[in-house]
Amino acid sequence: MQNFEILKTPFFLLLLFPSTLFSSAKIITATRTEERIKIDGKLDEPSWQLAEPSSGFIQKYPVEDTVPSESTTVRVLYDNKNLYVGVRAFDSEPEKILGRLSRRDTWSESDNITVYIDSYCDKRTAYTFQTNPVGVKLDWYIYNDWWSDWDWNAVWDVGTNIDSLGWTAEFSIPFSILRFQNTDSLTFGFEVNRYISKKRETDEWLLIPKAASGFVSLFGTLRGITDIPTPRQIEFLPYGMGKLTMEEGEKDYFFNAGCDIKYGIGSNFIVDATVNPDFGQVEADPSELNLSVFETYYSEKRPFFMERKDLFKTDFQLFYSRRIGKCPGYFSVLPGDVVKERPDFTKILGAVKLTGKMNGSNFGFLEAVTSPEYAVVDSCGAERKRLIEPLTNYSVFRLKQDVFESSNVGFTATACNRKEGELAYSGGFDWNLKILNDYTQEGQIAFSKTDKKGYADYFRFGKTGGKLLNCGISYSEVSKSFDIKDMGYIYRNNKRNANGWFSIFTSAPWWITYRMGSNFSLSGTWNFERVSLYRGFSSGFWITFRNYWWINMFLGHHFPSYNDWITRGGPALYVTPSNNFSFGASTDSRKSVSTGIYANIGYNESNSYWHSYFPFISLKLLSNLKLSVSPEYSHSFSYAEWVTNIDDDFDGLIDHYVFGELTMDILSASIRSDIAFTKDLTLQLWMQPYIAAGKYSNFKELIDPDKYEFTDFDYEPEIFPDFNQKFLKANIVLRWEYSPGSIAYLVITNALSDFSNPGNFSPIRDLKTVCKAKGERIYLIKISKWWSI
After folding, report:
1. Residues whose CB falls within 8 Å of the CB of residue 3, separated by 6 or more in sequence, listed in order
2. DSSP characters for 710-758?
3. Which residues contact 62 (CB under 8 A, 6 or more apart)?
C-alpha cells in the first residue's frame, strides 16, 4: 500500500518532471525611469547609467560553454507604458561589424541582438524582438517551449548606433503588446543573445545548452517591474485599396475599404475584428502539377489568419484557414450549362477572433461569415445564375491548458454551418507532455461528423533532448469516414502508420568538421482493409565543416506494397520495390556569393525511374541588395500511369482500367530580388517560370492488380491525356512603412499561361511561347493607417 502512496505526493511528479526542481539561475532587475527615453540607440540618458548592468555572456556557437570573443552588457528600464532593453555589444573591430538593410521580418546575414521575453512567466511562450546594426526589425512568437510562429507582428521600436567601442541597440517594447497576469509586481522570463557574423559566433546571456530539450523553460528571470497600470490597447487599422485588372483587352476596376480592429481586454485577452476585410494576397501561390487524387496544400498568407495561428495548430489539422474565402465550388452547375463567369474567391463578410491566456489556460475563438456566390452560365441560350457556394458560417474554438512544467493538454472544436448543404463538425483532444526532462509524449484523438462519423488518433514517444542520441516511435490511424475537408486539411484517410527512428549526432567540433550526425527510420503504412501501402526505411548522414560548408546524403528503400487510390475506386495495385538516393551540398551562406544543390534519384523494379535537381545561388551584391535564383528540373518515366476507367455497357461497373506509359519533364525556377532603400522602404521582385510536359504512350489495361500485370489496349480518346502546362508568374511589390504599423503597397502582378504543344517538351520554345501568351495583369495600390488609443 505504501508503494502507491508515493504517487499521491509531489515528489513523484518531480521525478517525472525534474525541470520543476530547477529555478532560473540568472536574474536581472529592471529600473523604473521617469525620464523620457529617446530611441536612438545611443543609450546616453542618465537613466541607463542608473540601471543595473548584467554581463557574463557565454559562447554557445561555435564552441559551447566558453568565454565569448567579445563582451556584451544588457540593462533594463521601464515606465508605465514601455519596457526598455539596452544592449552594448563591444567589438574590437568595429569597422567589420556587418549590418545589411532588408525588409522588416526578413533575415539577412548580419550581426544581431535578440531579446526574448516570457511575459506570462509560464516557461512555454515568449515574445521575441531582434535587430541588426542598421535597425532592421524582426519579431516572432515562441510557443510550446521552442516552436516559432514567424507571422506574429507587433508595433514596437528600436534604435541602433555603431561607435568606436562596437554597437548598441535600444529596444522600446510597449506593455500593451505583451500578455501577462496583472499583479502589483511582475516577473518575466528573460533571455538575450548576440550573433557576431564575421566569426559566426552566438553568445547567450544565460547559456541554454545545445543538448537541452527546451528553450523558453530555461530562461533567466527579469524582476523589479512594479505598479504597471493595466495596459489599454485599442488599435484601428483602416485601409483603402484600388485594383485594376487587365485581361484580354478588358479592364476591370475594383475599389475597396475596410478596417481591422484590435481591442485588448486587460492584459490577458485580445479581440480582433474586421469590417469588410481585405484578404487579398500580395504574392501568388506557386505553380504545381498534381496528378494524384489528393488536394494540394497551400500556406496561409492573409494577415488576419496569420496572427496567433500557432494556438490553433494540432497534428491533425482540424482548422485550415484557407477554407475561409476559398474558391467557390460547393455546388456544381447543371449538366449542359456553359460557365461564362464565376468568382475566384468567396467574399468574407466579416470575421472576429478572441485570443488570450488566464491562469495557465490559452483560449482561442474565431468566427467568420462568407457570402453566397453565383456563377453566370449559358443554359440553352439563356443567361442564368447558379448558386455554387452557399452562405456559410465558420467557427473554431481552441483551449490549451498548461500542466506541469513545459507541458500542455488541449481541446479543439470546429463547426461549418451552411444555409444550404451539409453541416460539418469536428473536434478532439491533444497533449504534449515533457517527461524526465529529455523525453516527450504527445498525441491527439480527433473526431468528425458530416453525414458519417469518423475518428483519428496519433501517439508519439521520443527522446528530444540530451547529447549524442535522439530517438522515437509513433503510431497513427485515420478511419475511412474521417472527413474534415470543410474546415480542416488531411492528406488522406483510411490509413494506419507506425514509425520508429533514431539519430546520432555531435555538435562539438572535431577534425575538419563543426558538427555532424546520422539517422535511420523505419516506417509502415496500411489501410483498414490491412492492405500494405508502404513499407520502407531510410538512412543518411549530414556534416557541417569548419568553413561552414555542408553536405548530406540519404538512401531509402521501399519494399513491395500496394497503391489503393491509383485506380480511382478500383482495386489496389501492387507497387514494385524501389530505391531512392538524395544528396545536398552548400557553401557558406554568410558569403556574398553562396551556392548549392539538391539532387534526388530513384528507380523501381517495374522500370520506372525519376531524377530531379535543385541548384541554387544567392548573391548579396550590396549591403541592401540580394538576388537568389533557384531553378528546378525533374525527369521521370512511369511504366503504368492511370489514364481513365471505361464502362462499356453503362451498367455502373468498370470494365477497363486504362494505364499508359508517361514520360514527364518539369522545369521551373524561383527568381527573387530584394532591394532595401531604407529599413522602411523596400522593393521585392519575384518571378516563377514553370513548364510541365507529359506524353503518354503504349496504353494498356490492368488485368491482375496483385501481380502488376497489364495487356495492350487499343485506346483512342476524344481528348488525349498528353499535356504541356506553361505558366509565368511575376510580382513587383513596393512596400513603405511610412509610420509605425502604417504601410503603403504598390503591387504589379503578371500571370501568363499557355497549354499548346501537349506532350512535347522543348524548354526554349515553351518559355518563348508563355512569354507571348495572354494572361492577367493586376495593378494594386493599398494604404493602411495604424492608430492606437
Report:
1. none
2. EEE-----SS---EEEEEEEEEEEEEEEEETTEEEEEEEEEEEEE--ST
3. 200, 201, 509, 514
Number of residues written out for the chain: 789
Pairing status of strand 31-32 against strand 72-78:
parallel
Look up cell 522570463; give the residue. 189
The single-letter DSSP state of residue 285 is: P
Copy the grid coordinates of residue 181: 497576469
Place of cell 485580445: 270
User: What's the pLDDT tens digit per position in 702-751?
Assistant: 999 999 999 999 988 878 899 999 999 999 999 999 998 899 999 999 99
CB 417 within 8 A of CB 425: no
Return the domain boundaries, the chain: 14-231, 564-789
Which residues are paired to 606 by β-bridges?
none
Using alpha carbons, select from 28, 362, 73 the residue that is nearest to residue 190.
28
Amino acid residing at 424: A
Peptide bond into 53 cis (omega under 30): no
Burial of 381 (0-12, 13-18, 19+ CB in 10 A): exposed
Q: 14-231: which CATH topology?
A: Immunoglobulin-like (2.60.40)
| SS3 of residue 352 by DSSP | strand
Threshold 0.85, pTM exceeds: no
In angstroms, rounded to a whole number, what is the distance separating the alpha carbons of residues 339 and 341? Answer: 6
**30, 94, 496, 566 from 522: Cα distances, Å:** 51, 51, 14, 24
Q: What percent of the chain has pLDDT over 70?
A: 95
What is the mean predicted confidence (pLDDT) over 678-699?
95
Buried b (16+ CB within 10 A) or exposed e, 458-487: bebbbbbbeeeebbbebebbbbeebbbbbb
Burial 202-225 (b: 16+ CB within 10 A, else e): bbbbbbbebebbbbbbbbbbbbbb
**Whose CA is closest to 674, among 606, 594, 619, 729?**
619
